[in-house]
Design a protein that fits this description.
It is found in: Secreted. GO terms for molecular function: heme binding; lactoperoxidase activity; metal ion binding; peroxidase activity. Its cofactor is heme b; Ca(2+). The chain has two domains: 153 residues, Peroxidase, domain 1; 132 residues, Peroxidase, domain 2. The N terminus is likely disordered. It starts with a helix and ends in a 19-residue tail after the last helix. The protein is globular. The longest helix is centred in the first third of the chain and has 16 residues. It has a two-stranded antiparallel sheet with strand order 1-2. Helices cover 42% and strands 2% of the residues. The chain contains twelve helices and two strands; from the N terminus they run αααααααβαβαααα.
């Protein structure tokens, strides 16, 4: 874990990215036990469902990458509007019920105080820390957005992206190359369905049936899990053999040619990102430090100054 002085310095550098004033102590007076309530609720849910940590971390990424960190990903669709969570890239998101439980507990303790956007940001930190990863001080004070559109989810970086496309996608949100490589390490938690990578396994090109950047033995194991045609919609692959532990094994997998997504594997073979991948693979402490710094930076993307604190995270007030 990086020293608080280091985190604070990073916060000062990052502050101009957001449109609102955030602070570590934002709820100290109005809801002093907010972070304890969030942590306890998430820990209990994770005990009963091991997929919760990966799903909550992914939820944070998918929220911040569309309209900024405004909890728009939590809004349900209405007859008049199809919301982000029902956009094609978000259909595999889950654990919304955990955020509902957190919000219910917070409303009992301190009504109309803690935003859903802050809940998502704090939850992402907590699931990383409880999975063995770094801890950082989350800046708080985000407001909840009122707009959520499914058609905007096409702007999420796809697992088929190459490194140039990834760099541009992250740059559009004020994030640098190092942020891209560090935040990609979030794939150390979780699972992917075949549909996200089967293009690498069958009819990859006119020359190769299988993506040649894949380790041959690994590719064969993926083909067995994802045959063509595939009748099992739930079939897929752990993104990392230690998928319930937050560690740097993701980068070691990439170096071994075992990155599940094309976007993951491309990071090794690009001069702008390859050395960073190797550095994180060789030094977990460095990865943890950079991941925490990049999560703070991501958490400041598109923060709302004028919004609301939703009473129900699934609907505007």
């Amino acid at each position: 874990m990086a020293p608080f002085s280091t985190i604070l310095f990073l916060v000062l550098l990052i502050a101009p990215l957001c449109n609102a004033t955030l602070g570590v102590q934002y709820y100290d007076q109005t809801c002093p036990h907010a972070e304890d309530i969030i942590y306890q609720t998430i820990r209990n849910a994770s005990f009963f469902d091991s997929k919760v940590p990966a799903r909550l971390l992914r939820m944070f990424f998918h929220d911040c990458f569309i309209r900024g960190c405004d909890a728009s990903v939590l809004l349900d669709s209405t007859p008049e509007n199809k919301a982000e969570k029902d956009g094609q890239p978000n259909l595999s998101l889950g654990a919304f019920y955990v955020i509902d439980a957190v919000k219910t507990n917070l409303e009992k303790a301190c009504p109309t105080t803690v935003s859903c956007a802050d809940i998502v940001a704090i939850a992402a930190r907590d699931v990383v820390a409880m999975s063995g990863g770094p801890y950082w001080n989350v800046l708080k004070g985000r407001k909840d957005g009122r707009v959520s559109r499914a058609n905007e989810t096409v702007n999420l970086p796809a697992p088929s992206f190459n490194t140039s496309q990834l760099i541009q996608s992250f740059a559009n949100r004020g994030l640098a190359v190092k942020d891209l490589v560090a935040l990609s390490g979030g794939h150390t938690l979780g699972f992917s369905h075949c549909s996200s990578f089967e293009g690498r396994l069958h009819n990859f090109s006119s020359v190769h049936d299988t993506d040649p950047s894949l380790n041959a033995v690994f590719a064969q194991s993926l083909k067995q899990k994802c045959p063509k045609p595939n009748s099992d919609r739930n079939a897929g692959q752990l993104l990392d053999p230690t998928s319930s532990v937050f560690d740097n094994n993701y980068y070691k997998q990439i170096i071994s040619g075992k990155g599940v997504f094309a976007s993951d594997q491309s990071l090794l073979n690009d001069y702008r990102t390859g050395l960073i991948v190797k550095a994180f693979a060789n030094d977990q402490a460095t990865f943890f430090r950079e991941f925490a710094a990049s999560m703070i930076k991501l958490g400041n993307v598109g923060v709302l100054e004028h919004g609301e604190v939703r009473l129900n995270c699934r609907a505007v007030n």
